[in-house]
Structure formats: structure tokens, C-alpha cells
Amino acid sequence: MLDELLNEYVDLFGENFPVYAVRGSMTEKEMIDVLKECISEKLPYQIEEDNNKLDY
């Protein structure tokens, strides 16, 4: 199921879903739910940026 949704996401948006960025903060079920929502709404996932984080 997850692989199918990831492929559908790529087909729809022309880019990969940012699995690396959400892996520690989402379960597989949550990722599936987010992918389904992105696909049904036709809106790519937006990574929330931490404005308090310092880049070195």
C-alpha cells in the first residue's frame, strides 16, 4: 500500500514524497494517511520548517 501511494504521489507531483524528512515523526499508517490526503486534495506535502533552528 505505501509503495503504491508513493508511486502515485510521484506520478501526480513529479517529485518524491519527503520520506526522509517525516520518517522519525510519523508512523507508516500516518504516512499513508498523509499520502492519501495529498493525492485526493492534489496538493503536495509541505515540510514544516523550524524557524528557531540554526544552520551551521
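[next item in queue]
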Amino acid sequence: MKQKNYILVIISILFLLVISGCSSKKADLSDVKESSGNIVIKGHNFRGLHQGNGTAKDPDYKYSMYFGKDGNFVQDIISSKGFAGRFTERGTYNIAKNGDITMNIASVTKERFTSDSSLSRGIAPKSIVQREGSTLNAAEDHPIKINNKKTYLLGTVNNVKLYPTDAKTVNYKKHYQSEMKKYDNTYNKFSGHGFTSNGMDTPMNGIAFKGNKFIWRYGYLGRNTDKDNAVMAVFEGTYSYSSSDHILTLNVSDQSKSYYGNLMSLNGFKYKKSGSSLAGNNLKLRYRNNALNLVNSSFKSWGMKDEYPEDASQSQPKYDDYLNSYSVATFDSQMEKDDENNSPVKKAFPTKEDFADWVTDYYLSDDKEPDFKVLSVSEGGKVSVRDSLDDEQTETPVVYSLDYSITSDDSVPDVSRTICITSDGSIYSGHFNTLDEDLIQAYADYNG
């Protein structure tokens, strides 16, 4: 008797599970309309379900389809449980005498999502591609048959039963524009923009974006302002942005070692010591008031302001420029350990002030430039120089550089003039920073 009751309980549970499963499936098609026969196709919407086996090759599909009175159709297919994606198609169709339908796809929008949850919540797709014409793939670029079974339509791809419904299928153009806007706001929001830190010691800290890619030339000087207390590194990768919490997530795919030393010397690819990479797989920054600030990180950074002007072509820094000069591969390969004891320029001029005094003596002697005066002098860094006026400018690391004036009236501003010396003793001067053979010879004589 006990065994009989036990069997009855099991049968009851199985029956409830079957009923529950059927109810779930029916709920997904709650808005379909049963037809007694000879369904109307033109100007009507249809829905159907394909329940797969939960794999990427056979996920679940929710079909929604609209056949316009003008001979155009829209089909929207939402995929889940194995593949989080969406395929929205448009094209033309015709109806045979027996009621069967032939569809020809003209354009397809394919979206992929990070998860089924992201798709269902309307989160931006992680990729979106539109194909049309010659770019359609083999599965799309051929006639698609749909059989008319009088009370429903039968898709020949997954044998999906499509029933009439009052639920409207998405508008192809509006859906594509809406999804692209979400995608751009998440992955392309900062494309063409460049952010840099403001301040005398901070220009080496900047990040530039292009599309969904970024490159960050990271530089920082700690509270202890000792001249060798700076660090520099480069991070590259892709990014995404959440407008709800204003968090920019940098997905770091490549990064340099960390280099320590004088901030200006680091900018000139000279370092005192190197260490391991600073960042993990991702970095988070908060975007507010056109500025980025690093959050929840093991290292610190200055805030960076958006340098995007009204004329976007003038935005600084630029992604391509950074990539050419500061890509991880370029940055690591150009960094050299700074051994001041073996530098002939450092032996001749141990400090930047020594260099400035020598240049001043050179111009004031024999009245070469009687009104010569040094305005500022710096150590390390890079300067745009050229061998002659006919040559192109190149960013070149220098040991020292100074700005000077030769006007006799301090109230009248002089044009920008610079003198700089590289580690091999090359000296560039003037407004256009060209090679100065006279100063090079004077340096050679001074250095004996």
C-alpha cells in the first residue's frame, strides 16, 4: 500500500512539472491569436518559439515577424540560453497562390550581448554589425521559404510555428539607430577625445581614445617631490562606459613595465630603475564634469581634463600620435637606463643651470647677442627639432632645454626661441629649433 501511494506521488509531481513547462511556453506566446483557417498575412504580425538544447549551436529563439502591405517584411530573432544575441532582418517577400511565402533578405543587424540578462534588460550590445547586399553571408543571401498551414505559418529553418499576434515587430531602422546609440554611448563615447592633467609636473599624464580603444601614457609624481620620485608607464586596450554610475572601465590588453626616476627624464625615455607592470586586467575611472579620476586602484593618478575643443581636429592628445610615440612596444624599447656618470653632456654641465650659464656666456661674449637672456630652463623631456628648415620636425629626447629672448625691451614680447642639447652633443636653437653648427662647435671646444 505504501509503495502504491509513493508511485502516485511521483506521478503527481511529474504531471505538475509538465503542466508548469507548458504554462511557461504558453506564457511566452500569450499574445498569439488562434486562427480557424486562411490566416491573413499582409499587414499582420506573427510570433513563434524555438526551444533549443541550451548550446551555442542550438539556443532558444524567439521569432517576431511583420509582413507589410507594401511587400516588405521585418523579422526579429532574439537568441538566448547558449547564445545571447539578436538578429533583425528586413527585405521583400511574395506570396504564392497556395499561400506559401518566399522571403529575400536585404539587410541584417547582428548584435551580441555579454549575457542573457544584459539582452533582456536592454543593456548595450558588446558588438553590433549591419550587413547588406554583397556583405550578406551564405545563410542570409538566399530565398527563405515559409509554409502556410492555414492556421499558422511554418518556418523551414527551425520548423517554428508562427502564430498571428497583436504584438508589433520592431521597426528595423529605428531599432538599429537605437542600438547603435546605446553601443556608441557605451563603447565609443570618448572616441576622438583626449584627456590630460593640468600643472607644471603633470603633462606626461594623458589618455587618448579612438573608437572603443584607448592608450594611456601614465605619469605621476608622489608627495615627496624628490627629483627621482616619479613613475611612468603605458596602458593599452579597449573600454566601456556606464552612464548610470559614470564609470569608465579600461580593459587593459597590454601594458609596459613601470619606470622610475625624474619625471622630465622619463618623458625623454631615461629612467633610474624599472619594476613590474602597475595595472591588473582592468582600471576604473569616474567621469564627471568633463574630467576622469582613477578609483579603486592600487596606484594613484592625477585627474585628467577633457581637452576636446570645438574643432575636434585640434583635440589633444590624439590617439594616433600617442600610439606612434608611446605604444607599449615603442615605449619599452626606447626606455634607457640613465647613467649620468657616463654622459659627456652631464660631465660638461652637471646641472641645467650650468648649461644655461654656458649658453649665456657664449652669447654675451663678443656681443653676439647683447640682449640675450634666459627665460626658463628645464632638464629632460622631448623637443620638436629639425636639422634644417626644409626637414620635418621630430620629437627628440634632450638633456637640457631653455627658452630665451633677445629683445632689448622687456615690455615687448619676443617670439618663442629655444636652445636644447641632446645626449650626443647636438644643439638646436631658434624659433624653429634647427641645428646650430656654431653652438655645436663651441660645445666641442668647451668639452675639449
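[queue empty]
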